[in-house]
Amino acid sequence: MLIVRWLALFLLLASAVSFGFYVATGRAFYRRLGLVILKWTVVAAAVFFVVLLVDRMV
Q: Which of 7, 21, 38, 41 fits as disulfide partner to 30, beta carbons 3.0 to 4.6 Å?
């Protein structure tokens, strides 16, 4: 549980840093990278919560 929380926090921080690089440099690469990291972080969090929900139902 703790590892998953730290991993999610790290990925959100990496996404924020990438968006910060985009603002500073204006390169679209950093914006795309930030969006990809953010998208997969949200997908992984959704899967994690579905697994928790199913575990509590069973």
A: 21
Q: Is 38 exposed, middle or buried (0-12, 13-18, 19+ CB in 10 A)?
A: middle
Domain limits of the chain? Answer: 2-57
* pTM summary value: 0.83
Please answer whether residues 15 and 41 qualify as being in contact, where contact means their C-beta atoms are separated by less than 8 angstroms: yes
Average pLDDT across each block of 10 residues of the chain; the chain has 58 residues. List them in order. Answer: 87 96 97 96 92 92
Separation between Cα atoms, residue 50 and residue 32, nearest integer Å: 27
